[in-house]
């Protein structure tokens, strides 16, 4: 009897953990992995013992944001993303909202452990999460891009600090890396919106691809290889690696112009995520060959 009750309890706990993970599943490739790569590359005093703390800090904040986002319009998710926890019936909107607000003090207290900079990053992240979701900051293409880029920058700051040794902080090179990464993301992140363009039009969400469909695609062909070159120069990449990175950026950007079906845009978004992840390695390249 006891063993059966234990098994049932374990299954229940496993299901709850799976539900929590499903809130962030779709952002593992697009956010968790790239930002973790960045954090490990940009950390001033990298500590292998603390390396696992970077993805933990990032994931908890990502969970805070994603729950806040997914409780806003569950009916839309029921039509377009039925595998998410709420439309799948794994958790109610009210229960998800409770977790969403519990995550705010949890993330703040965790960040306090790492010092003032991490706490500031967590605080800004919490405020902008409210602006993005509860105050509809995601409804306009420009504000969505800017807010998302700053939120992304907060994740990079906190993750980088968590990856370092005790009482570490962002140095000048790390700050430059965050600034460049956030700016590059702000000007190219609509690469993720092309695949959702039809659904965004139906719901009235104004993203850059819905407002300027042709110009938005052309900006990919110009912006991605241009950023590839700029980042390569800033982080002093060797000539061969620079040529390869720029060529790959040109390939990714050109795909968005040449292929515009939903399936092609999904594939192009995957190539974009890889490009962005590779760009996150460059501060680590600089630290290894030129930095301290």
Which helices and strands appear, and what pairs or packs with what?
Layout: H1 2-22, H2 28-42, H3 53-70, H4 74-80, H5 93-114, H6 116-133, H7 141-163, H8 172-188, H9 197-203, H10 208-211, H11 213-234, H12 239-258, H13 262-280, H14 282-289
Helix pairs in contact: 2-3, 2-7, 2-13, 2-14, 3-5, 3-6, 3-7, 5-6, 6-7, 7-8, 8-11, 11-12, 12-13
What does this protein look like?
Helix 2 (28-42) runs parallel beside helix 13 (262-280), helix 6 packs antiparallel against helix 7 (141-163) and helix 11 runs antiparallel to helix 12. By secondary structure, the chain is mainly α. The chain has 14 helices and no strands.
Shape field: globular
Mean pLDDT across the residues is 87
Q: Number of DSSP strands?
A: 0
What is the tally of helical segments? 14
Biggest β-sheet strands, sense, barrel = none
Taken as a percent bin, the fraction of beta residues is under 5%
Question: Notable features of this structure?
Answer:
mainly alpha, 292 residues, globular
